[in-house]
Amino acid sequence: MFKRVLLKLSGEFLSDDSGFGINPDTTRQLAQLIISALEGTQVELAVVIGGGNLWRGARNGKGMDPATADYIGMLGTVMNAMALQDAMEAAGKPTRVMSAIQMQAVAEPYIRRRAIRHLEKDRVVIFGGGNGAPFFTTDTTSTLRALEVGADVVLMAKNKVDGVYDKDPQKFTDAVRFDTLTHMDVVEQRLAVMDATALTLCMDKGLPIVVFDIFQEGNLRRLFEGERVGTLIRT
Ligand code: UDP
């Protein structure tokens, strides 16, 4: 069983079928899914949420100063973190949003030792604001925060993809899913797991990654209990 886990959620998990914006019903369902999976386990949970449902620097910021475009993206992740916090707390789970960009009216500033303390007290810590630096993605935030708070694993939650395949399973019917891979396999075969910067950091530090379908009934719970689900990437 894992003791401390970093769960990476895509911003799109908060939106309706359009993939854009924050839908309160969808957000509530996601919060409920996470809370049910946690119930009765001893797992301490940290969450990093992306912002792709609101803004992606490279996609939406064409013609802009790229750093500014990325800062807008980071602010989007704080909006998502607040929406998830609202939904989790409405369902009775104590949480804290910690932002890498200081905005004390809505979120605590990110302070590593404080984040660890929250986790020890069984609060779900939701990291907003990415790394607080442009030219990164929330994949790197997930890896960085996981290492900082001493998480055992990064759980990369996907929708409708239940692991890492040798080719895109939505395009190729003969695509084969891997049960386990090394970080180096992922690099050498250029498999789509997370961006290269994040993956390299995991490889350097020996941090395991699991890629799994969060919306498949029971998957998150099984992972929290230490069962094998999806694809495990380790050194
Ligand atoms: N971003 C950034 N630095 C970070 C994290 C995020 O600049 O440390 C920006 C970047 O523009 C990115 C956007 O925030 O495109 C949204 O994050 P991401 O694309 O990772 O969200 P996801 O696809 O996981 O929803």
Gyration radius, rounded: 17 Å
CATH architecture label: 3-Layer(aba) Sandwich
Distance between the termini: 19 Å
Work out the strand percent: 15-25%
Q: What's the name of the CATH homologous superfamily?
A: Acetylglutamate kinase-like
Kindly report the CATH topology. Answer: Carbamate kinase
Number of domains: 1
Topology pattern, helix = H, strand = E? EHEHHEEHEHEEEEHHEHE
Number of helices: 8
Low-confidence stretches: none
Average residue-wise pLDDT? 96
The distinct bound ligands, ions and cofactors come out as: uridine-5'-diphosphate
What's the oligomerization state? single chain
- Shape call: globular
* Top CATH class: Alpha Beta
Give the class from helix and strand content and strand pairing. alpha/beta
Strand count: 11
Helix content: 25-40%
Q: Going across the major beta sheet, what is the strand order?
A: 4-3-5-2-1-6-10-11-9
Describe the protein's architecture and organization.
This protein is α/β, with parallel strands linked by helices and 235 residues long. The protein has one domain (4-234): Carbamate kinase (3-Layer(aba) Sandwich). The protein has helices at residues 24-38, 57-60, 66-90, 112-120, 138-149, 183-188, 196-205, 219-224; strands at residues 4-9, 44-49, 95-99, 108-109, 124-128, 153-158, 164-165, 177-178, 180-182, 209-213, 231-234. The strands form 2 sheets. The chain has a 9-stranded mixed β-sheet with strand order 4-3-5-2-1-6-10-11-9, with helices on both faces. Helix 1 links the parallel strand 1 and strand 2 (44-49). Helix 1 packs across helix 3 and helix 5 runs parallel beside helix 7 (196-205). It is globular. The model has no long low-confidence stretch (mean pLDDT 96). The site of uridine-5'-diphosphate (UDP) has 22 residues, from helix 3 and helix 5.
